[in-house]
Specification:
With about 250 residues, the chain is an alpha/beta fold. It is built from eight helices and seven strands. It has a seven-stranded parallel β-sheet, sandwiched between helices. Helix 1 links the parallel strand 1 and strand 2. The longest helix is centred in the middle third of the chain and has 22 residues. It is globular, with a radius of gyration of 17 Å. The termini are far apart.
């Protein structure tokens, strides 16, 4: 029996790495993309192979919209040569960046950067991916707890993620005829290098977040991966068009 396959964008580090490993532990093969750090990506590939699953990494700049067709041509070739099939089952749109800047100080360039990475890239990549996603598969988009609660400096970032949450519902509605599910996960504050390590490396912010989280700490990457992996299983076959916040009860 052929294993199901998930494609995780931005899977070389942080939340993407956690997602890729957790999905592999569910018995799926994993294809991950990376932007610049091929070494880190191959480390994740090797970790997945040690778990008994097949994996490859392909370079992708989520803001280089013009190469998406070429990317999926390459993906198709790799699927046939390395996996013996021609389609994937799940797309996890994780690739992204964070910019922490107050509303009054956010520049047009910052706004355009976040738009291209967090919304336009995800929108167009998923469009192109429809040709390689099996009917009955799934899409998992990544949002943020910041669409529900507010922390200073994330107005632009959270606004793009709000758009992703709306997009997810439309994907679920319009792709339902192919039985493709679309859901969005919304992590709370997580200790990673995301946004320059604004949560991980700022002791004061870390303490404030922990104090305002019901479970009393800031999140870790491994808190997120398992939930995404669940959405890539048959156990989640009736979960659709949902926003699942993974924040430990932050700001409730």
């Amino acid at each position: 029996m052929t294993n199901k396959i998930a494609l995780v964008t931005g899977g070389s580090r942080g939340l993407g790495r956690s997602m890729a490993l957790a999905i592999a532990k569910k018995g799926l093969d994993v294809i991950l993309t990376y932007n610049g750090n091929e070494v880190k990506a191959e480390e994740v590939v090797n970790e997945i192979k040690c778990l008994g699953q097949n994996s490859i990494a392909i370079q992708l700049d989520i803001t280089n919209f013009g190469i998406f067709d070429t990317f999926f041509d390459t993906l198709g070739e790799q699927l046939k040569s390395k996996f013996g099939i021609d389609k994937i089952d799940y797309l996890i749109n994780n690739a992204g960046i964070g910019i922490n800047k107050s509303f009054s100080e956010t520049t047009e360039e910052m706004l355009d950067t976040l738009y291209n990475v967090q919304f336009k890239g995800t929108y167009l990549l998923t469009q192109k991916a429809l040709r390689v996603i099996n009917d009955g598969g799934g899409i998992v988009n990544v949002s943020t707890g910041l669409t529900r609660f507010c922390l200073n400096g994330f107005s632009a970032y959270a606004s793009m993620k709000g758009a992703i949450e709306t997009l997810t519902k439309y994907q679920a509605k319009e792709l339902g005829e192919r039985r493709i599910r679309a859901n969005v996960v919304a992590p709370g504050a997580i200790e990673t290098d995301f946004g320059g390590g604004v949560v991980r490396d700022n002791a004061n912010m870390n303490k404030i977040i922990a104090t305002n989280t019901a479970l009393g700490r800031v999140g870790l990457p491994e808190d997120i991966g398992g939930v995404v992996a669940f959405l890539c299983t048959d156990e989640a076959k009736w979960v659709n068009a949902q926003r699942i916040e993974i924040s430990g009860g932050q700001m409730i």
